[in-house]
Amino acid sequence: MQHAEQRSDLLNIFLSNTPLLDVRAPVEFAQGSFPGAVNLPLMNNEERHEVGIRYKEAGQQSAIELGHSLVAGEIKDRRIQSWVDFANAHPDGVLYCFRGGLRSRITQQWLHEAGVDYPRITGGYKAMRRFLIDATERLSQQTRFVIVGGMTGSGKTDVIAALTRTIDLEGLAHHRGSSFGGHPDHQPSQIDFENALAIALLRQESHHAQSLVLEDESQLIGRCAIPDPLLHKMHQSPRVWVVEPLEIRVQRIERDYIRRLLTEYEERHTPDVAWEKFATHLTRSLFNLRKRLGMQRYAELNTALQAALSQQFKDRQSDAHASWIRPLITDYYDPMYAYQRTQRAVPTLFEGSCQEVTAYLQSQGY
Questions:
Q1: Predicted confidence band of residue 2 (pLDDT cuts 50, 70, 90)
Q2: Residues belonging to the active site
């Protein structure tokens, strides 16, 4: 197939947001893909499973014949048309399967027969994934990092949002990082998170950023784990420390975890459903801390939480949530953060308010 163009310029593909046509089965796509990729499979999950069994029992040629019999007639026509539509909408795109082998070659051939020549990625998903894993390892070693630390509610995420030479780890993980940090939408898969992180690192490298600011995180941001090479480097990196009065921190948590979160639910659901999901989220999040808090303290805080929810439901005011947020900060989060700070023997470059830390980092070119 002389017309079968291949591309292996993975760095350019990722940095230019090249449209990606993923022809793997949906189950493969769900396990992990790349930002913006669209899944238009050659075979669905059931067809792929049957072909896989045939391959093990009777070899490749028999499996290919079964595949052609399963994807034929109107099914084949519909799938080809979906690829043609994608190619016409994204003439600068590329396609790939798992290893850049049979499935992507067949897709490319059928597209050619339909009058569309479309390039495929050499090595497919596996090569792309390996490229990004290697990039994370390399850039974790090469890049200097400054870590933004501070007690909960001090505004670390606000600092990150004000900078350019930074990567928003919580944004990539779609989670605020604490026990209460979930959003209405699901988090990405671990592989999707790692791929997006690697691309963010590569994008900063392409802008000649040799040093980046990251927010202090534990390994898990919700269910997404920071890759070990980056986490190890973060734990060795100097930091800046954000200090804010307790009441400012309480107000910021009430803003982010109460008012803004309820708005997120309301944007996705009817008012009754949004409220139920919002209240359930807060109640479950506090319940998950019961063993660490101790059952008596948990019961007290839960009573305050339920009273605040009842008040908020009546008058749409969220001020009453301070009655459980404040003691949760002082009795649980602050001691935990203070202990973690003593465990890392790294220099503190600057300490100040959220605004002062932001100004300092901006003055340093971040």
A1: very low
A2: 97
Q: Enumerate the β-bridge partners of residue 6.
A: 120
Question: Which residues have a Cβ under 8 Å from the Cβ of 363 and sit 6 or more positions away?
Answer: none
Q: Say how far residue 33 (Cα) sits from the centre of its chain.
A: 12
Residue 148 has a pLDDT of 97
**Domain identity same for 124 and 167:** no
In a domain, 139, yes or no: no
Counting the structural domains of the chain, the total is 2
Q: Give the total residue count for the chain.
A: 366
Q: How many CB atoms lie within 10 A of CB 252?
A: 19
Domain span including residue 215: 144-366
Q: Give dist(CA 122, CA 112) in Å, integer.
A: 18
Would you state the pLDDT for residue 69? 81
Q: What is the pLDDT of residues 246-279, one digit of tens each?
A: 999 999 999 999 999 999 999 999 999 999 999 9
51 within 8 A of 70, measured Cβ to Cβ: yes
- pLDDT per residue over 163-200, tens digit each? 999 999 999 999 998 889 899 989 999 999 999 999 99
pLDDT tens profile 332-366? 999 988 888 887 778 999 999 999 999 999 999 99
Band (pLDDT 50/70/90 cuts) for residue 1 is very low
Contact assessment for residue 136 and residue 201, using Cβ atoms and an 8 Å cutoff: yes
Using the CB atoms, write b or e for 319-354: b if 16+ within 10 Å. Answer: ebbbbbbbebbeebbbeebeeebeeeeeeeebeebb
- So what's the pLDDT on residue 70? 86
Instruction: Please give the backbone phi and psi of residue 257, each rounded to the nearest 5 degrees, phi first.
Output: -95, -10
Please give the Cα distance from 361 to 364 (Å, whole number): 5
Closest CA to 169 of 213, 235, 229: 213
Contacts of 3 (CB under 8 A, 6+ apart): 112, 117
Count CB neighbours of 364 within 10 A: 15
Tell me: do 177 and 261 sit in the same domain: yes
Q: What is the CATH number of the domain that holds 51?
A: 3.40.250.10
Nearest-angstrom CA–CA distance, 221 and 182: 9
